[in-house]
Each structure stands twice: as C-alpha cells, then as structure tokens.
C-alpha cells in the first residue's frame, strides 16, 4: 500500500510540474523580414548604328567574287546565224560588209564558191551587242526570203568574276615571291625565278581569257549564208557547149577502147596460166562423164 501511495504521489507531482514548465518556455523568435531588393539601375540605351544594306556589305566583303546584281552589268555573249536567199550573192555580200562598218562593227571572214547561178556565199560580221537586233532586222531586208535564222546567248559573268579572283590571287602570289627574292640565298634564287615564271604565265593566260570574254560580249557575232534565188536559174546551165559535150563523149569512147585493149593484152600474156587451168578443168569434166 505504501508503494502504491508513493507512485500516486509522484504522478501528481509530475502532472503539476509539466504545465509550469510549458508556461515558462520562451516563445519562438519571429522570422526576420526578407531584405528589400536593391533597385536595378536603369538600362543604358545602346548607341544607334546605321547598318549599310546587305547587298553592299556582301559586295565589299567578297570583293571580286561578288556577282553583279543588275542585268546591265552582266556579260552576255550573243551569236546569230541566218540563211538568206538573194538576187545577187556578190552584191549582197558587199552590202552586208557596208552594214557592219555603218553599225561600228567589222567583217570577220568572207567566202564565195561556185559560178554564176550556182554561186554560194558566206560572210561573218561582228557588231556592237546593243545593235545586234538592228543588224538582224537590216539583214532580213536585204533578202528575197529568209531560209533559216537562229540566235544564241551565253552568260559568262560567273566565269569572268572567277577569273578576276584568280588574277588577284596570282598577282598577290607574285608579289610574295618578289619579296622573298630580295631575301633569298643564292641557291634559292633559281627556284624562286621558276615559280615567278609559272605565276607570270598563269597571269598572262587569265588576262588573255578575260580580254576574250570582254571582246566577245561587247561585239556580237553574226554568220550569214547567201544563196541565189532558185527561180532565176536558166534552163541551160551557164557555160554548157554541145561541142564540149561531143568531145567529152569521144574521150569516153577512146578511154573505154584503151581499157579493152589493155585487158586483151593481159589475157594474152597470162594465157599459159589460165589455159592450163582451163585444160585441167575440162579434162576432169570429160573423165567424170565417161565414168
């Protein structure tokens, strides 16, 4: 009983001490307020820079490798070929030569073949590219009729720009070799001279090709074929003669007689050979018939 009373007393003491300790416990500290964010500085406006157009930038950066944008700057090689039926081949050819000179062009080549109404002509001219259509129009006016006509255009702008780039690189290489030549030793001088010779030859080839493209693009080529009017041909060919025809026939007969005489002589000379062969063949045929 004493033990039970002691346990009950201890429990009562514990129950009294717990609320007192809870009341004396200090309250938890209040959370500290978060610091206010520092004000951000106002953005500084970027300086305004006016950029050039894209096309201009590309052209300046690429240099010689840029292609011209406008059609007027492009290099076009134009050629034409026309076949004309005319009254007089020689007179028309002279008029075409005068036409080329009048249009600030020149004659490249001429050729005439045949005689009288069988005469044929061919003439090639070059005229400025901007007068190409005018030249074709005036050529049509010289003809009785136009048998055929064709034109062709070839854009060589890209090739020309590529040649400009190659020329610039070759000239830069040549300058580097010349700079090395001043500092080179005696045994290196010969090798540098060989390289300079190769680069110089390449530069000449590139310049020659560029000049050819410039010339052919600025001066268009027109080739003209000339034929006489068919209705103006006479019934009898010009230059025909009955006496000449008779002489030609007699010469033919004489030639045939000479050929026969030559054949007879050859047969006579080789008669032992072909006679023996023919005799053997006849002997074998008779022997078969008797058998």
Explained architecture:
A five-stranded mixed beta sheet has the order 2-3-5-1-4. By secondary structure, it is an alpha+beta fold. It has helices spanning 2-24, 54-62, 89-102, 132-141, 157-183, 186-218, 242-269, 271-290; strands at 76-86, 106-113, 120-128, 145-155, 219-228. The chain is 56% helix and 17% strand. Helix 5 (157-183) runs antiparallel to helix 6 (186-218). Strand 2 and strand 3 form a beta hairpin.
Topology:
Layout: H1 2-24, H2 54-62, E1 76-86, H3 89-102, E2 106-113, E3 120-128, H4 132-141, E4 145-155, H5 157-183, H6 186-218, E5 219-228, H7 242-269, H8 271-290
Parallel strand pairs: 1-5
Antiparallel strand pairs: 1-4, 2-3, 3-5
CATH topology of the domain at 77-155: Alpha-Beta Plaits
Structural class: alpha+beta
Shape summary = extended
Strand percent estimate: 15-25%
N-C termini distance: 174 Å
Which CATH architecture of the domain at 77-155 would you pick? 2-Layer Sandwich
Spatial extent as radius of gyration: 54 Å
Mean pLDDT score: 77
Number of strands: 5
| Largest pleated sheet | 5 strands, mixed
- Helical proportion, percent range: 55-70%
- In the predicted model, the low-confidence regions spanning at least 5 consecutive residues are 18-67
The H/E string reads HHEHEEHEHHEHH
Q: Looking across the biggest beta sheet, what order are the strands in?
A: 2-3-5-1-4
Number of helices: 8
């Amino acid at each position: 009983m004493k033990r039970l009373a002691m346990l009950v007393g201890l429990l009562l003491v514990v129950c009294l001490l717990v609320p007192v300790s809870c009341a004396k416990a200090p309250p938890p500290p209040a959370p500290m307020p978060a610091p206010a964010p520092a004000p951000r500085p106002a953005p500084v406006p970027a300086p305004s820079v006016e950029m050039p157009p894209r096309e201009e930038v590309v052209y300046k950066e690429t240099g010689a490798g840029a292609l011209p944008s406008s059609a007027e700057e492009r290099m076009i090689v134009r050629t034409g070929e026309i076949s004309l039926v005319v009254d007089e081949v020689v007179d028309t050819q002279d008029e075409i030569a005068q036409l080329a000179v009048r249009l600030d062009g020149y004659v490249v080549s001429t050729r005439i073949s045949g005689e009288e109404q069988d005469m044929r002509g061919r003439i090639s001219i070059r005229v400025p590219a901007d007068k190409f259509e005018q030249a074709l129009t005036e050529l049509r006016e010289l003809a009785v009729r136009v048998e055929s006509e064709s034109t062709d255009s070839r854009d060589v702008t890209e090739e020309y720009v590529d040649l400009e780039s190659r020329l610039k690189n070759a000239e830069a290489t040549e300058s580097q070799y010349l700079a090395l030549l001043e500092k080179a030793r005696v045994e290196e001088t010969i090798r540098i001279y060989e390289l300079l010779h190769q680069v110089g030859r390449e530069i000449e080839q590139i310049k020659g090709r560029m000049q050819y493209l410039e010339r052919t693009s600025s001066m268009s080529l027109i080739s003209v074929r000339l034929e006489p009017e068919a209705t103006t041909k006479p019934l009898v060919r010009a230059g025909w003669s009955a006496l000449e025809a008779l002489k030609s026939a007699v010469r033919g007969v004489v030639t045939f007689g000479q050929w026969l005489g030559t054949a007879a002589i050859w047969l006579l000379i080789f008669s032992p050979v072909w006679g023996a062969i023919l005799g053997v063949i006849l002997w074998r045929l008779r022997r078969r018939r008797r058998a």
